Amino acid sequence: MAHAAITGWGKCLPPGILTNDDLATFIDTSDEWIESRTGMKERRISHVPVSDLAHVACARALACAGKTAADVDMIIFGSCSFDSQVPNTSSQIQLLLNASNAACMDLNTACTSGMYALSVANSMIRTGAINSALVIGAEVISQLMDWSDRDVAILFGDGAGAFYLEREEPDTGASVTENGLLAESLGCFGEARHILAVEGMGAKYANIGWPLGTTRWNFEGREIFKRAVTGMQSGCSQVIEKLGIEPADINIIVPHQANLRIIEALAHRLNLADAKLFINIKRYGNMSAATAPVALIEAVEENAIKSGDLILVPAFGAGLSWSAQLIRWGNRTTPINHSDIDLRPSSRSGLELVNEIAAQHKKNRPPEPL
Ligand SMILES: CC(C)(COP(=O)(O)OP(=O)(O)OC[C@H]1O[C@@H](n2cnc3c(N)ncnc32)[C@H](O)[C@@H]1OP(=O)(O)O)[C@@H](O)C(=O)NCCC(=O)NCCS
């Protein structure tokens, strides 16, 4: 059967850095508390819209694959911080790339969006609906954040990761073994959807008088923590069984990075003693949909992933959505080309950017609780 090889990868992290000490300048928290409870030291804050982050990540992924924008059949943009709902953000990415042959689709399963997008593109390529796709996980959560709420403000950051997928026929070349996304397990705890909710985004809020741009988070951290571990654990067991492999066949786990303690609890329960664990949470915090894609890309860049490795990617997000995917990395672990496209420069620090966003939010007085 044809498979969807991942032949290009690219990330884009905005330059503005927000440290734990920066956070402690405007909310009641400390570097010690944040690091010991989450494993995070700093995160990035974007000075540009999410479509710009995605554009740069995609240009880098295309160069990495040795392709041009004209080669792309489909753009799937996984996110929950769209530039706009109508028109969708993937069409803006198409415009920026000049990828005029590509169909464009936005996909929102919150933190798992980038990985769900990978599943959708993979299936469409395998069935022959398309031959190639750009899959993106990108967020500017900083714009949706309630910067006065220490329960959530410490956890998130901005960024983008993109993959180029193309159809390969294993039968046509003896050197091509089946690679790319081999199997997934996807699910959702809909009955607990209220425990991770960004209130203010969506048509129902306009009807009851929420000012545009006002958000407030409903966030039950401890309950989310438990669900994250159980959701990802059951997803991992299911996908291992589905592919008919032994746990010992897995070379590396690249999990969604929401909290180091969640990752450690999951690793303990999975008991995959021989598999490596890739962690980059210290540098970026939780970038929602961008997290797992960027972690995968950095694992390749840092030679933690080798050609032919079997990679387990568990993820978790609002919904409460969960996923577990098994990916076989292909032959190539280095880019064919590099793109010289970059973000427009910015001299503003992460703290300056956050102060600007928070001041803007203050202009819209949040409504009383419903
Ligand atoms: C949010 C999270 C880090 C909180 O850690 P926790 O160990 O559960 O901490 P608690 O919420 O129980 O709070 C413990 C204490 O720290 C305080 N606290 C909470 N946030 C704080 C902060 N940012 N800084 C300092 N103190 C804080 C609490 O008020 C509480 O104080 P008390 O004991 O006096 O009442 C953790 O629950 C978590 O990571 N949950 C999952 C969240 C997540 O990943 N969501 C995204 C999914 S994709």
Describe this structure as you would to a colleague.
This protein is an alpha/beta fold. It has one domain (3-363): 3-Layer(aba) Sandwich (Peroxisomal Thiolase, Chain A, domain 1), CATH 3.40.47. The chain contains twelve helices and 14 strands. It has a five-stranded mixed β-sheet with strand order 1-7-6-4-5, with helices on both faces. A five-stranded mixed β-sheet has the order 8-14-13-11-12, with helices on both faces. Strand 11, helix 9 and strand 12 (276-277) form a beta-alpha-beta unit. The chain is globular. The relative contact order is 0.21. The model has no long low-confidence stretch (mean pLDDT 94). Coenzyme A is lined by residues 29, 33, 37-38, 111, 150-151, 154, 221-222, 224-225, 228, 258-259, 286, 316-317.
Main CATH class: Alpha Beta
Count of discrete domains: 1
Topology, number of strands: 14
Q: Report strand %.
A: 15-25%
Largest sheet: 5 strands, mixed
Terminus-to-terminus distance: 52 Å
DSSP summary: helix tally: 12
| Assembly context of the chains | single chain
Low-confidence stretches: none
Helix content: 25-40%
CATH 2nd-level architecture: 3-Layer(aba) Sandwich
Class derived from helix and strand content: alpha/beta
- Gyration radius (Cα, Å) is 20 Å
> Average pLDDT value?
94
Biggest sheet: strands side by side, in what order?
1-7-6-4-5
Report the CATH superfamily: Thiolase/Chalcone synthase
Element order: H for helix, E for strand: EEHHEHEHEHEHEEEHEHEHEHHEEH
CATH topology: Peroxisomal Thiolase, Chain A, domain 1
Q: Give every kind of bound small molecule, once each.
A: coenzyme A
Quick one: overall form?
globular
